[in-house]
Amino acid sequence: xxxxxxxxxxxxxxxxxxxxxxxxxxxxxxxxxxxxxxxxxxxxxxxxxxxxxxxxxxxxxxxxxxxxxxxxxxxxxxxxxxxxxxxxxxxxxxxxxxxxxxxxxxxxxxxxxxxxxxxxxxxxxxxxxxxxxxxxxxxxxxxxxxxxxxxxxx
Length: 154
Fold this sequence. Notes:
Elements: H1 3-20, H2 27-46, E1 48-49, E2 64-70, E3 75-82, E4 88-94, E5 98-105, E6 108-112, E7 118-124, E8 128-138, E9 144-148, E10 152-153
Antiparallel strand pairs: 1-2, 2-3, 3-4, 4-7, 5-6, 5-8, 8-9, 8-10
């Protein structure tokens, strides 16, 4: 059996499947919509508020906030408490081996090295904040894997 015979056989097989089980007419549109909304689902899953009671507010008398972020491979829990001077203390725990954790606010960045998955930052000013966590594992390209949280207010 030569290459030409294989091509004829594959062509006949493809024609058979197209007749027996044709591709749905709206498959391309559904796939485009699925890919377009995949990031929305991921962003929503990354940011989930964890509260101590069902009726707890994000901001209250204690001005404390607990957030959980996950990308499916690593999860991080962040607890933010206001200090007397109006600045914030940010405590966090990550369930994956991490090399470093950074808090990013506009042009300011603070770094910490987690110990046994725990990290903390003192004197963080209030404002829109994002975490960047560099993991010990690497991507397929050989670069360190990273977890970037959506922006949240401390």
